[in-house]
Amino acid sequence: xxxxxxxxxxxxxxxxxxxxxxxxxxxxxxxxxxxxxxxxxxxxxxxxxxxxxxxxxxxxxxxxxxxxxxxxxxxxxxxxxxxxxxxxxxxxxxxxxxxxxxxxxxxxxxxxxxxxxxxxxxxxxxxxxxxxxxxxxxxxxxxxxxxxxxxxxxxxxxxxxxxxxxxxxxxxxxxxxxxxxxxxxxxxxxxxxxxxxxxxxxxxxxxxxxxxxxxxxxxxxxxxxxxxxxxxxxxxxxxxxxxxxxxxxxxxxxxxxxxxxxxxxxxxxxxxxxxxxxxxxxxxxxxxxxxxxxxxxxxxxxxxxxxxxxxxxxxxxxxxxxxxxxxxxxxxxxxxxxxxxxxx
Length: 344
What we know:
344 residues, alpha/beta, four-stranded antiparallel beta sheet, 14 helices, globular
């Protein structure tokens, strides 16, 4: 079986494994107070063009999202999010489990618009009895989105502006950030993201690391006592060095972006084959996730050899499946899939 169902089937890039192995018996402080985490923090600040950024490392994406959101919001506050957003559909109510409501907004492309944010905020504050409903205090987006689309710099600037105007935090889930920043047509970079949002994270789990996410906080108001919340939510890794080593290795020479670009290139190759065969897509994704509308019998045929991710039924004969490449996808496996897509 060849897996195209997600972007974390493989372990980690060999450089990461080598770096962990080579430092295995070096003694260091725990809980992220080690030289490796410090080097990784400094590198991230350099890449973002801001030495004042606050950087911490956590193990996984859901943990990172719930920790940041729980630390930022008061008990009566909630987070605005596209209805397709990860915290709304794929985190088993983790945010609600922390006592904060996810305020879902309609979306067909995975994005949130400034007008939606403005309207949601106005509907609350202009109500006669606003204290009877959850107060919006944060906007959550992911880049790439849950369906592989990306935000432009202008879109992020506009979102940032409406959030600042209304006193809302803007938080970016960057589980697949590398795939977004190396996508065709992207005009965002790390300095822009760090400047325009209050917090974001650089995903490692899906891009070359064994595990780990690097959360970057630019708003000083969100830094206070953040490590207390990390500990309370079970995210303060005793052997924190393992996270610092991985991020330093991935980011020091641009490896993170090189392997992200590879995943996008492999997805583009598959996308071209699907397009030539006349298949439609749920959205036009320039990243490593393709949501293709395919006859059930073709899905059944491909599933004998490939693991694909079923998304939803379109009609009685057609379904939407996700084909997902990764930093480690082998081109020979892509070529095999392309050959089988062309078969009638």
